[in-house]
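Example record used in the benchmark description.
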Amino acid sequence: MLLTVVMLLCSVAVSAQDFEMDGIYYNITSEKTVEVTYCYYEKKYNGSVIIPSKVNFIGKSYTVTKIGQMAFRGCNELTSVTIPGTVTEIDDYAFDFCTSLKNIVIPEGVTTIGRGAFVGCKDLENVIFPNSLKMIKFDGAMIEHAFNNTKWFSNQPNGVVYAGNVLYAYKGTIPINTSVEIKIGTVSIAEYAFHVVGYDCGDNIVKITIPESVTIIGQGAFYNCSALTSIYLMGTTPPFVDSDNFTNSNYINTTVYVPKGSFATYQAADVWKTFGIFQEYEITGIGDVNVSNVAIEVTAGGITLSAAEGKRVAVYSASGALVEKIDSYAGEEIALEKGVYIVRIGNAAIKVKL
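Model output (C-alpha cells):
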C-alpha cells in the first residue's frame, strides 16, 4: 500500500486525468506507462507525496515514467515529494511555485527537466541532480531558466552554474572579454545557458572551450554571442547542436579549433558545417610538458609529476570520467593504460596521449 501523507480534494465531477490511485492522479501515456498529472481547478496536492514506480488500474500494471506538465503547479502546501527511479522526464512547469518545497532528489534515470519546472519554488534550497541528466530546457516566453527564483540558484556564486553534469546557466553579468572553459565531465549545455535574463551574452564572451565529454548543446545556448571569436572542441566527434545555435552572421569570423584528423567530420556535421573557419590542432604524446612550472613525464606504466608535491591532482579519461584523484600529490607514479587523458593540476589542465 502506498504511504502518502497528502490532502487531496480533487473533484470527481470534473476530471483532468485518466484515473486516481491512492490519492495521486495519472494520465495513461502508452500501453505500459503513465505520467503523474494534476488535480483540477483549485484543488491541489498538499503535504508529503510519495510517487510509486508502478500502479495497477483495471487489472493492468503501468510504470510511472514522467511527472507531467504542471502536475504540481502552485501546490504551495506541498512540503516534500519522492520521485521513483522509473521516471525519465520532469515536464514543463511540473513544480513551479511550490513555495513550501525545500528539498528534492531527482533520481537516476531522469534525463530531461522541462521549461520552468521549478521556477518560483522560493524555499527550494537543496537539489540533488542525477548523472543521467542530459538537458534542462528554457522558458522562452517568460525568459526564465528552470530554477529561477529558488534558493538553490540564489546560493550559487556568480559565473557558470552547473546542475550535476549539465552546464545550466551563467549567473550574474558576464564581464567583457570573458573566456569560458567548461569543466571536464560536463555532458551537455542547457538551453539558452548564456542567455542571462535581460540580455544576451552579446559582446562579452570571446572564447569557449568545450571538453570531449559534452555531447549535446541545447537550443540557443550561445544565442547572439556576437563577440565569440574562438571555439575550442576537445572531442573528435562533434557534439549535437540544436539548429538554433550559430545560425546568423555573428559567427562568420569565429574560428573553430578541432583535434587533428576531425576536420572532415565537423565539416559534414549539421550546424558545425556552417562555420567557414576551421583549424586543427594536434594531440601529441609528451616527454616533458610544463604546466604552471609542473613537469609531466611519461613512464612505462603511466606518468609522474615533478614540482607538484602537495598539489591536488585529478586525471580524467577522454570521455570525462574520473580515473584518479589525489588530494595531495607526493611524487608517486600515476598508473595509466594507453589512451588520451586530461591531467588537472590545481587549476591548470593538459591533454596527454600515452
